[in-house]
Amino acid sequence: MNQLLKDLKAFQPVPTRRQALGIGATLVGGALLIGCSPQTIGKIMSVGAPHDFGAFGPFIKVAADGTVTVVSKHIEFGQGNHAGLAAIAAEEMDADWDKVKVEQSPANAAVYANTSFGMQGTGGSSAISNSWMQLRNAGAAARAMFVQAAATTWSVPAGEVSVKDGVVSHAASGKQAHFGDLLGAAAKVAPPQKPALKDPKTFTLIGTDRVRRKDSAAKASGTARFTQDVHLPNMLTAMVAHAPKFGARVASFDAAAAKKVPGVVDVFQIPTGVAVVAKTTYAARQGRDALVVTWDETKADKRGSDQLRSEWTTLANKPLPTGASLKWYPFLARGDAAKAASEPAALEVSYDFPFLAHATMEPMNCVAVVDGNHAKLIHGSQIPTLDQLNTAKIVGNLPGAIEIETLFAGGSFGRRANFQSDYVAECVHIAKHVGKGRPVKLVWTREDDMTAGYYRPMAHHSLRISVDKDGYPATWRHRVAVQSLSKGSPLGDHGLDPSAVEGAKDSPYLKATPVVDGQAIHPDAAVPVLWWRSVGATHNAFVMEHTIDQLAKKAGKDPVDYRRALYAKAGADRHLAVLNLAAEKAGWGKPAPAGWSRGVAVHESFGSVVAQIAEVKLVNGEPRVGRVVTAIDCGTAITPDQIAAQMEGGTCYGLSAALFGEITLKDGAVQQHNFDAYRVLRHNEAPTVETYIVPSGEAPSGVGEPGTPVIAPAVANALLAMGQPPTTRLPFVKA
Fold it and tell me: Does 384 have pLDDT greater than 50?
């Protein structure tokens, strides 16, 4: 490591290709990310990156007219985090909310890193929680600078100066000034290292309905800039022909017909397929359609999804053969495992979950400009650090020197963040081939992303549970078979993928169970898998919550009361609070509307606890959800209106997947190409979602994902309550 840092210091501003490739390979290969502190990684990533920030630091800018711009290190791709992030800084600064704007930060991991690995990115519902103290301190420091500037200018004690809505005042003398009036003087004040923060009880902006999205007007008017809106002089558009089966490679291709398409400029092979570059998107599409590619399927995975499901089930329920390359990883062990396997079972149940597509409204796209080893990316970058690393490897430069202009993006749900920067790397390879700094926009169609993207992994759970004399779990044997998301990760593959068991490992139900034997296994498949909105909670929440309802039914107990007893045993006060709030608001214990049934589910993910009660009826044999009552404990509620919006969006996203979502494979090829076969929730199928927030003085936690995993088990439990059999396989509605 020390030698690597010495090598970095010795680099010229533009290193040789050999040097840059060496460091890039080390970074992406994992040795550096695993062996270094986040601070060291930040230093490495910052070489060649801009550091020219104003007087108020990298997060705050103040204009002469008093406008305050909050610089966000987190991308805005529909979740509405920019308003909350701006509100945190504006609250401490006492800025005029109507004069607060948000600007996307540059890619600079040394300054804007927000993960424990020293990378800059947005994910894990962490934007608000990660920036909470950082932006409070930035806002408070800026406020202190204006206060001191006023005190010096007016020759009054700083303690007598107040700030409200961007106006600095001294009551005794009657003097006041706007931020813009004091800008020059404030810029000369040294920012305090530990500024005084407000008592949350005095907040006037945070937690109020005043905090509304700052991007709504631009998106409504069409002035918001997305990647498809980028039109640069002399820009080309590219599309890529991908292999129809995972693991296949290009054997040969005939570009003759493609090159005859008017507007097609070039056709060439890149590592992931064959690129067609043209003057327009239409020409690129037509050229790709005319392209003839022969694929080498020697190493392709030709298993269908039914075969994979059968293999996963076998793994979870039968001993591994001698010499098997796979192994089981314990995720929770308490008491006598043999007892968990031998006690008479009150419930034995298995669950199957399909592959899922992310199905973002905006498919993948990127603009790249490559001139020699200089590169600039313009797109909705979810993890700029990874995009810098992977681009640096391709063009032969330092990661920090890769410029990224991050735009709005139309959703991600995890898709735009992967260790390979797949579609970004494709664009860079194409732009490098085109060369001479000519811009290239890579466009993926819906079909491209549906058939050649990344997927929520298929999963199988097998449970065997015995109960005590009161009907509560006494032993719990749990087996999970699911592909690992961490295999091959530069962050390290340590055997057990934590995401595979999140939501199960720390479940209060398992804390309340005396004997637990939980293990996971990670079978292999060529299907590329990736985190999907709420990651492991997408299947673990269903397993835990639907299982609990089945146990409650066998015990002859009300499912809400059954949970209350288990939460009391586990000391799960937050779970109990959201459950009680949701039950109260939903009228639990009172008859449901005629023809409807109620189901409950509670789950913790990303630091927040969500309870949902869903009202469900059957329409032509299919579940229809009418009303969903949601209670959430997410710590301090920065933007109540946006929290409600996230609960609504997360619920509809989760319900869409639960009702219809399924990616199937036939002979290794994805069968669903677009929304005609991969159904999503329609407007007339969306439920009414009521959101209630548990008051809290704790630091804020995530809200982008916790609403997604709870709805599916709530629906399954409502079906169970109306006398339907347990749901052991999703989706509810088979295509």
Answer: yes
The region of weakest confidence among 48-62, 216-230, 502-516 is 48-62
The whole-number pLDDT of residue 734 equals 84
C-alpha span between 572 and 189 (Å, rounded) = 48
From CA 190, how far away is CA 207, in angstroms rounded?
31
Contact assessment for residue 465 and residue 426, using Cβ atoms and an 8 Å cutoff = no
| Segment (H or E) for 618 | strand 608-619
Q: What are phi and psi of 559, to 5 degrees?
A: -65, -30
**How far apart are the C-alpha atoms of 122 and 705, rounded to whole Å?**
12
Rounded Cα distance between 394 and 229, Å, is 26
Q: In the predicted model, what is the mean pLDDT of residues 554-573?
A: 98
CA 83 to chain centre: 18
Confidence of residue 486 (pLDDT cuts 50, 70, 90): confident
Under a CB-based contact definition with an 8 Å cutoff, are residues 578 and 610 in contact?
yes
pLDDT digits 0-9 by tens, 203-255: 999 999 999 999 999 999 999 999 999 999 999 999 999 999 999 999 999 99
The one-letter amino acid code at 499 reads S
The residue among 110, 120, 118, 121 whose CA lies nearest residue 38 is 118
Report the pLDDT value the prediction gives residue 49, as an integer from 0 to 100. 65
Contact 547, 553 (CB under 8 A): no
User: Distance of CA 392 to CAs 424, 430, 640, Å?
Assistant: 12, 14, 41
Q: Give the pLDDT band of residue 43 (cuts 50, 70, 90).
A: low
Residue 669 has phi, psi (to 5 degrees) of -105, 140
d(CA 618, CA 423): 41
Closest CA to 246 of 491, 422, 427, 416: 422
Mapping DSSP to helix (H, G, I), strand (E, B) and coil, where does residue 288 land? helix
Cα–Cα distance for residue pair 330/521, rounded to 1 Å: 9
- Yes or no: say if 39 and 156 are a contact pair by the CB < 8 Å rule: no
Classify 478 as helix, strand or coil: strand
Tell me the H-state helices in 127-182: 127-154
* 452: nearest Cα among 715, 586, 274: 274
Q: Residue 604 pairs with which residues in a beta bridge?
A: 609
**For residue 53, what pLDDT is reported?**
87
- Cβ contacts of 173-181, under 8 Å, gap ≥ 24: 175/150, 177/150, 177/153, 178/66, 179/62, 179/66, 179/68, 179/95, 179/146, 180/62, 180/63, 180/64, 180/65, 180/66, 180/67, 181/66
pTM: 0.93
Which three-class secondary structure string do you get for 372-411? CCEEEEEECCCCHHHHHHHHHHHHCCCHHHCEEEECCCCC
The model's confidence at residue 31, banded by pLDDT at 50, 70 and 90, is very low
- Cβ proximity of 353 and 458 under 8 Å: yes
